[in-house]
Write a structure and sequence with these properties.
By secondary structure, the chain is of the alpha+beta class. The strands form two sheets. Strands 3, 4, 5, 6, 7, 8 and 9 form a seven-stranded mixed β-sheet that branches. Strands 1-2 form a two-stranded antiparallel ribbon. The longest helix is centred in the middle third of the chain and has 13 residues. The protein is globular. The N and C termini lie far apart (about 50 Å).
């Protein structure tokens, strides 16, 4: 029986590829927000989630037909309470995509143009923190975010 809470367009579900099992039937995306005064916004993942207890960026499954940027912004709003961004709040700097044999995760790298306030707005976040760029590697990071961080950091400008 299908879950009535999951729309037909929802990408919630596991995708299996030769490289493993990944969350997001249509891929996934996350938002790396950089604030020049506070650093980057990180999410401490709850213990029951994949790679629970680690730190990463707000993100998740893309909906069917949803762009990487729209998905990353939606997920950031859902998980970190960052207001639904309208293009006046952030400047997109770059996109970084990892392809796992057809399943993709795209990090949308952006700069905050004003002070964005975060708040835990769903059950997927243990805590949220603005972390200075030079301290990110001091946190126990989600393994894929840890691999990507050196490249992502260069894109922050």
């Amino acid at each position: 029986m299908s879950d009535p809470q999951v729309s037909r367009a929802s990408g919630d579900g596991w995708c299996k590829t030769p490289q493993g099992r990944f969350w997001g039937l249509f891929g996934a995306a996350g938002l790396l927000i950089h604030d020049s005064e506070r650093g980057v916004l990180l999410q401490h993942r709850v213990s029951w989630s994949a790679h629970g207890g680690t730190w990463g960026i707000p993100g998740g499954a893309k909906h069917k037909g949803e762009s990487d940027t729209d998905a990353a912004i939606r997920e950031s709003h859902e998980e970190a309470g960052v207001p639904a961004l309208d293009g006046h709040d952030i400047e997109i700097l770059d996109l970084y995509t990892v392809d796992k044999s057809g399943w993709t995760y795209t990090t949308v790298i952006c700069r905050a143009l004003g002070r964005l306030e975060e708040s835990i707005s769903d059950r997927e976040s243990e805590e949220l923190a603005w972390v200075p760029v030079d301290q990110v590697e001091d946190y126990p990071l989600h393994p894929e975010f840890a691999k990507a961080w050196p490249t992502l950091r260069k894109s922050l400008g």
